[in-house]
From TrEMBL:
Cited NCBIfam families: GHMP_GYDIA (NF040656)
Gene3D superfamilies: 3.30.230.10
UniProt-recorded name of the protein: GHMP kinase
Taxonomic lineage from the root: Bacteria, Pseudomonadati, Bacteroidota, Flavobacteriia, Flavobacteriales
Gene Ontology MF terms: kinase activity
Keyword Acyltransferase recorded: no
């Protein structure tokens, strides 16, 4: 497929509205981030994939070697499927094998010539931040394998797919699943006049979104009226022209989701004395929160032990 070195790049993601309920058809506001991940492939002279992943400091955090073989136990579309194996099995290598084999099922030509590759990935954000280490990887591999990234996500990590939409877009979007569970993605102009009062704060705890989704689904409390309210908040946030109104929309959204997942809003549980609004993003309980403040809130959060405070314009693409 690829005879020369080639690099793919995908943007990170943040879900501003619609967390959890986006799975049930609510319209969510999502933003691609300036942070992202690249994947470079370079052919080598054997049928092995030599993989190195670099973190934001330029240090290798994963390396592995994978063999590409025909599988004697699987037949796909009348031909042998591929088996990707690694001598040093671990959680990361097993996940990479799953993704590569899923891509090959979606496109049987992928890796079918047994061409080996030296692969390097570089991300410019901390993996613990939850900005899309997995979704950017999925989108990059999908581009390489020439398969649909949403289908590859479904075969591997699952989820609503909003993170794939962010990986592929250069501006804020609304994301919604239609009645056929197909994504409807619309670019929007979300560039609030008060953006210099918006910040993203990392809560020092990586949240597993799959666990959050599982808990949400088990409660099964969402209905059409809640989805309608979330849609209205999303549209209102996009059009909002004042910080005070934006704060009210944040509070309304937090209270709505709090009632759905039976968790206390993050401001009430951890930052009750903060002078501004705070909104959880994505799966509650970790990753980033969106903060509004008339003044720079960095000192406040540092006294609480949270050192990563990123202004809106430094985060949003």
């Amino acid at each position: 497929m690829v005879k020369t070195s080639k690099t793919y790049h995908s943007h990170g993601k943040l879900l501003i509205t619609g967390e959890y309920v986006v799975l049930d058809g609510a319209k969510a506001l999502a933003i691609p981030t300036k942070y992202g991940q690249s994947l470079t492939i370079e052919p080598n002279d054997n049928n092995t994939i030599v993989w190195k992943s670099y973190d934001e400091l330029g240090k290798v955090w994963f390396n592995g070697e994978f063999s590409i073989d025909d599988s004697s136990t699987a037949c796909l579309f009348g031909r042998q499927a591929l088996s990707v194996t690694s001598e040093n099995s671990n959680e990361v290598s097993n996940r990479l094998i799953q993704i590569l084999e899923a891509a090959q099922k979606l496109n049987p030509e992928f890796l079918s010539d047994h061409q080996g590759y030296n692969i390097t990935t570089h991300q410019d954000f901390n993996r613990k931040w939850g900005l899309g280490t997995s979704s950017t990887l999925i989108n990059n591999i999908a581009d390489w394998a020439e398969v649909d990234a949403y289908a590859l996500l479904e075969q591997t990590f699952g989820g609503s797919g909003y993170d794939i939409a962010c990986a592929q877009h250069n501006s804020p979007i609304t994301y919604q699943l239609d009645e056929n569970h197909s994504p409807v993605v619309t670019t929007v102009a979300f560039n609030p006049k008060f953006k210099h009062h918006l910040y993203f704060v990392y809560l020092n705890q990586k949240q597993n979104s799959r666990d959050g989704i599982k808990a949400y689904k088990s409660l099964n409390r969402v209905d059409d009226s809640i989805i309608k309210k979330v849609n209205q908040i999303t549209e209102s946030m996009i059009a909002c022209e004042s910080l005070s109104t934006f704060n009210s929309l944040i509070d309304a959204h937090e209270n709505l989701i709090s009632g759905l997942i039976l968790q206390e809003p993050v401001k009430a549980s951890s930052f009750h004395d903060f002078k501004g609004a705070i909104k959880s993003l994505g799966a509650w309980g970790g990753d980033f929160v969106l903060v509004t403040s008339e003044t720079d809130p960095t000192d406040y959060f540092k006294t609480k032990g949270y050192d990563t405070v990123i202004p809106f314009e430094a985060m949003v693409l």
